[in-house]
Amino acid sequence: MSDTTISVRNLYKVFGDDPANAMKLVRDGVSKGELLERTGHVIGLSDINMQIERRQIQVVMGLSGSGKSTLIRHLNRLIDPTEGEIEIDGQDIMAYGEKDLLKFRRHNISMVFQRFALFPHRTVLENIGFGLGTQQRPKDEIKNRALRWIDRVGLSGYEDYFPSQLSGGMQQRVGLARALATDAEILLMDEAFSALDPLIRAEMQTILLDLQEELHKTIVFITHDLDEALHIGDRIAILRDGEIIQDDDPQNIIMKPADDYVADFMKDINRSRVVRARSIMTKLRGTETGPKINAAMILEDVAQVMGKTPNKASIVVNKQGDPVGRLTIAGVIKGMARPDSTGTRIT
Amino acid sequence: METWLLEFPQMSQDALRAIKRGIDKGYLSFSRTYGADIEAVFEPVLYFLVWFEKLLLNAPWWLIILVIVGITWFAARRWTLVLGVAAALLLIGYFGMWENTMRTMAMILVCTLLAILIGIPIGILMSRSDRTQSTVLPVLDVMQTMPSFVYLIPVVMLLGIGKVPGLLAVVIYAIPPVIRLTNLGIRLVDREVLEAGDAFGTSKWQKLYDIQIPLAMPTIMAGINQTIMMALAMVVIASMIGVKGLGQPVLQAVTNQYFALGLFNGLAVVALAIIFDRVTQSWGHRMQTYRQGMGDE
After folding, report:
1. Does any CB of chain A come closer than 8 Å to the CB of residue B203?
2. Interface of B with A in 153-192 (CB under 8 A)
3. Is residue A347 pLDDT above 50, yes or no?
4. Strand extents, DSSP E, chain A
5. What CATH homologous superfamily does B19-288 map to?
6. What is the ipTM of this complex?
7. Which among A243, A263, A342, B100 could disulfide-bond with A257, CB atoms 3.0 to 4.6 Å apart, if both were Cys?
8. Contacts of A101 in chain B (CB under 8 A)
9. Do A238 and A299 belong together in one domain?
10. Least confident of A54-68, A179-193, B144-158
11. Is the confidence at residue B143, as pLDDT, over 90?
């Protein structure tokens, strides 16, 4: 089996009364504004191509209206594309009939929602067991597995509460547990933590990363928050006006933004906390005498280690301890600085 | 000046008479041809109604009061309401209206049951398609605004006088709220919750049973409550076509100017209405404890 779980090719979504006809114009190269003016149709997604790797967290980032929620809903066909292919585990999910689609949603893919979308008339236990219920499993099994997930997300003791009796963070833990309980391999998270306040959000991110360490799901995570994207993403796709501008390793997005839009996005981040040593190291010269630096270390930590002997260059080593590069304190400072192109404002 | 400007240009009396006679004759021949068949369709309902009425009439009065009080307690869990219900029933019996009250109660319960059995599926169908909704709504409007005496006429022509035509008239009059509010309740279910259901692969039936109906239930209960109230109002009118119960003494009182008789029986209807209303309402209310935050402890 290949390492790609989800493969999206030439995906278009046009909103309007007659998308098929509007699509012809799009193929002829009519621009977004012109299409809207001539036909009243809106292009939601335009020529999306993505390969999402197994057991990775793929973040899709964009501002509101960029089409990210529309995109994620194509992956479980809550929304059908106007044109394009979606393959999941080598299966063309666009070819699924009603029955196959229900089976696919019950067993292979699950979802966490921005505003939780819990079932208000069901208790925490019943909410978490919901997916298992649609899988038509025996009642005992549903209960036992739901109880295990309640424990796993730290909600033991709240089994019989209704969602309205819980805080936002607790509700989203229920949402997460509900999605994980079905044992689906793919997890879609639609701005799952955006409605939570910052402290709770950070806590939920930690819970998610902890769970991922153990479960190795394929996660598609939608967010408009760059810090969140950089914190949890193995790969980040940046979406603007329904088009993917850059789909890359987070380090590459920071160091080599594809265009000014992406660069502009990056300008406010705290680079010393997200740029890693491997992104800014140079070739080994063999003259390095400073302390060894782990390639995955963030610059803030690098600066702390190297700051004690600022005149010595360091060897960057990979996980196995092999030397892979060279780093000087000047290089670290350069790595923390914004790239020149992004309109630095010195005030 | 031309006469048609001063007087409405009417159809000629002969033509009008011919139309009316045509409709009457047509309907009469329809009811002669199919009346028996239609009556046969209602046979099981009649059988059930008669059985239920006998059950209520033959059971000892204290047992019935106990059962009703028990239902009230189960539905409302409020002592004040339970005591009120018991007192109302005792007074009704003491004033000699027990049998008529039982007849009316049997009629109301069977009518309501029938209205629910027919109304909820219609409401569900309406909620699923805008086209069905836009066809059914005007029919409901007509059913609710047409003076109830008017549709007593065809019902009597078709089925004669007695329990079944009465039942039919009451159900037609009382069914609109349960249809309307079932439709409304299902349409008001949060779209995000439905989307979550879809994302987990619920089939249409699972969605209906597990999400839409439970979440629409408080609204549907309000509809059932309204239906019961309307059925009670209609039971008095239906006494004109031979439905026994509290309506008959009221009718008698109207024709003979017996004020006290009318008042007592009227008050008995009121008491029944209050009992049904409070019990169904508090039950509907209790069904939505999940909406009240930390309330259910």
Report:
1. yes
2. 190, 192
3. no
4. 4-15, 42-53, 57-61, 83-88, 91-92, 109-112, 186-190, 218-223, 235-240, 243-248, 292-294, 314-317, 323-327
5. MetI-like (1.10.3720.10)
6. 0.85
7. A263
8. 201
9. no
10. B144-158
11. no
